[in-house]
Amino acid sequence: MEIILKQDVKHVGSKDDLVKVKNGFGSNYLLPKGFAILATESAKKQLDETKKQRAHKEEKIRVAAEGQAKWFEDKVIQVATKAGENGKIFGSVTPIQLAEAIKKMGMEIDRKSILMDDDHVKALGTYTAKIKLYKDVVVPLNFEVVSE
């Protein structure tokens, strides 16, 4: 039996996948629960159109993310924090503080998209983090922790 999945189903496939399953599994579990629809000719055509539109939208988003990535080239973000005399800071620098520092420079980034190499930045100095702008668009972010 050929079906089109309406949502991700573990060990079967992802949303909008066209998969073959055994008749009993499809008609007794997937179809009644609303996890899938029967793969008729019209449903297949609709699926193709949906995938085409989604690919077009994703390409627009990817181009926008690559444009944002160019903004981060050769930029060093400064994060000011309180520090002791020996260069050790009070607390640690978090992605929230990085997102706020980036916002002050004119670019808004979600803090959840900032991936820090060092989980706990606890000293003054220069560090590198990564920003995931889209699925495969990841840019390095150089930031410097300075004393207030």
State the CATH superfamily name of the largest domain. Answer: Ribosomal protein L9, C-terminal domain
* Name of the CATH architecture of the largest domain: Roll
Identify the overall geometry.
Answer: elongated
* Proportion of beta-strand residues: 25-35%
Rg calculated over all Cα atoms = 23 Å
- How many domains is the backbone divided into? 2
Written as H for each helix and E for each strand, in order along the chain, the element string is EEHEHEEHEEEE
- In quaternary terms, these chains amount to single chain
CATH class of the largest domain: Alpha Beta
**Number of helical elements:** 3
Report how far apart the termini are. Answer: 66 Å
Q: How would you describe the overall organization of this protein?
A:
With about 150 residues, the protein is of the alpha+beta class. It has two domains: about 1-70, Ribosomal protein L9, N-terminal domain (Ribosomal Protein L9, domain 1, 3-Layer(aba) Sandwich); about 70-145, Ribosomal Protein L9, domain 2, CATH 3.10.430. Helix content is about 35%, strand content about 35%. The protein contains three helices and nine strands; from the N terminus they run E-E-H-E-H-E-E-H-E-E-E-E. The strands form three sheets. Strands 4-9-8-6 form a four-stranded mixed β-sheet. It has a three-stranded antiparallel β-sheet with strand order 2-1-3, sandwiched between helices. A two-stranded antiparallel ribbon has the order 5-7. Strand 8 (about 125-135) and strand 9 (about 135-145) form a beta hairpin. The chain is elongated, with a radius of gyration of 23 Å. The protein starts with a strand and ends with a strand.
